[in-house]
Amino acid sequence: MNADRWLLVVLVVGAALAVLRLAVGHLRATPDARPAAWRTCALVALTLASTVLLFRGLLPPPVAVERGTLAVLTAGAEGLAVPAAETVVALPEAGDMPPGAERMPDLATALRRHADARALVVVGHGLDARDRDAVDGRALAFVPAELPAGVVELVAPDHIGAGARFDVRGRVAGIEAARVSLMDPAGRLVSNVEADDAGRFRLDATAREAGATLFDVVVHDADAREIERVQVPVIVDAAAPLRVLLIAGAPNPDVRALRRWAEDAGLRLRWRTTFGGGAGVGDAPALDAASLAQQDLVLLDARAWDGLGAGARASLLTAVRGGLGLLIHTPQAPSAALRGWLRSAGLTIETGRAVDWQPDVGPDDVARLRAWMGPGSDDAPFDPLLAGKAAPTLAYLPLSGGAAAPGDGPSGMMRWQEVGHGRLGVVTLADSWQLPLAGRADLHAGLWSGWAGTLARVGDVQPPRFDGEFRVGTRSTVCGLDADARVHAPDGTTSTPVPDPATNDCAGIWPTVAGWHRVESGAGDWPFLVRADGAAVSLHVAALQSATRALARASDATPDTMTATRPGRAWPWLLAWLCVTAALWALGRARAGRNRVPAPSSGA
After folding, report:
1. What confidence score (pLDDT) does residue 561 get?
2. Tens-digit pLDDT profile for residues 27-50
3. Which positions, given as ranges, span the membrane (predicted)?
4. What is the DSSP string of 142-189?
């Protein structure tokens, strides 16, 4: 209960006791000494009036006041009409100020100097991170400036594995028939597309060796003039190689192709192929709890699963629930026993009729295909004759149920489900070995690497989350850091992230130089890119406008509809209380309305 409620309770109780005293005194008096009824009623009315006036004097009711609207000019406000407002201020990013505007170092200072401002109108590109907290729930309207021509949206993967295929997606604005290209760190063209009618594009490339590298997204107009070049940070993790267990129920070409893929990808592979009658070849251990705890992923074909005993199947399911990844390869329709086992584990699937699928072979230009595939190796060098050559047509059984795996294949080719702390998946692609046989080991590796990355056991160390873009002079947020985390800048300086009290595990950093920075803590270290102040201008402006629109949507009102109030004046109520209380005091002491008690007669 707040102080206002306590004051009301105290006054009500006091008034009730005073009225009760008057009523009891009136009823208990003898008929000869009882005061007139009008006197008691007047005293009760004055008591209640005094109580009400005292409450209003201590807490006067709010009164409506003329709303104070503050127009805030930001970068890009030049040439825009400034809405009608009592006060106009310009933040440091704003250009030329209109007559009468005040230059302010930040929004918080402007609001301190104009404390009566109840509503804000932001004009231009929007508020920087420095100024957003100062809004503090005030009504806010946004008059955006036109976005500069260039890349206004850009989405790239945070962390990927070596040899994995990745996408770079985004949107361009203000350019008709824009052509967007992706250049690798060596300046070679990897992928290029024409943006659609909405300006959206999707580019793809292949990650190479572990480390932090910079790709470039280059935007050209219809006349092939370069409009903008935006750096895209690509971080290829140097994680410990996955521990993979491959078990096949019979010799087949897929086993050989998978073994070669694991070798090229640097995986720690153990495998076994059975011949029937207990015979087999390979170094795979038994499927017991101790052996499965040492693996990150088990690749098992349906024939091998059918040959497992009840104990091995139970051990597999227990290991999956403990964090192991399991992928069952079933090019034919799975048996009823396998379906039932999958259902008991939490993955209910249905298969359709077989359909054909032909992978995307990439660019038909030799130079671009070389950049897309990589230079190859000594025993499998890049073949220029592959440019424009179609890939083999493969078949698969479409699956429904579970979740679709990311990657280059159709969504129904592989489905998976979280089971406890691990993941269980089923893939129905047949004869994927034909891809490396046709010289496209990269397509084969892209498929199986994507599925392995989806299902494999998750490591104990999770990388921090880098929210938004990082830019010189702008506050940025990193979440999931340890208390001992430090940020190392490319100029050799070291800083400590400042914890954000509004969140549990996030902290703010203020970069002062551009380039690759590194967050270091006891759990590891992770690189991140800080852009220069003038880099990727369109992307930065779009981020400012998006954040300001979010503030406008979150406000409870708008400048046109918000009603502002302030506490009313107390002195009229207190003056009235003083007059009524004086009247109550005077009437309580006056003899008006009192019955005279006759004096007793003396005996003769």
Report:
1. 47
2. 877 777 777 888 888 888 888 898
3. 6-24, 36-59, 570-588
4. EEEPPPPSEEEEEE--SEEETT-EEEEEEEEES-TT-EEEEE-TTS-E
Count, residues in the chain: 604
Would you say the pTM of this structure is higher than 0.85?
Answer: no
Task: Report the alpha-carbon distance of residue 15 to residue 509 in Å, rounded.
Answer: 59
Looking at the fold, whether 280 and 409 belong to one and the same domain comes out as yes
pLDDT at 362: 76
Residue 352 C-alpha from the chain's centroid: 36
Contacts of 58 (CB under 8 A, 6+ apart): 7, 570
Residues 551 and 427 in one domain: no
103 and 19 assigned to the same domain: no
Phi, psi of 552 (to 5 degrees): -65, -40
Place of tokens 């220029």: 384
Q: Check whether residue 186 and residue 199 sit in a common domain.
A: yes
Beta bridge pairs of residue 207:
none
Q: What CATH number is given to the structural domain containing 486?
A: 2.60.40.10
Q: What is the pLDDT of residue 86?
A: 74
* In the chain, % of residues over pLDDT 70: 91
Instruction: With cut-offs at 50, 70 and 90, classify the pLDDT of residue 163.
Output: low
Domain boundaries, position 87: 68-148+542-566
Written as one string, the DSSP assignment of 439-453 is T-HHHHHHHHHHHHH
Q: What is the DSSP string of 58-105?
A: HSPPEEE-PPEEEEEE-TT-TTSPPPP-SEEEE-TT--SPPTT-EE-S
* 153 is a domain residue: no
Mean pLDDT of 138-148: 88
Rg value, the chain, Cα: 38
What the block records as the tokens of 266 is 């640097």
Helix (H, G, I), strand (E, B) or coil at 318: helix
Establish if 341 belongs to a structural domain: yes
Q: How many helices (H) and strands (E) does the chain have?
A: 14, 35
Name the band, by pLDDT with cuts 50, 70 and 90, for residue 337.
very high
Is there a contact between 515 and 529 (Cβ–Cβ < 8 Å)?
yes
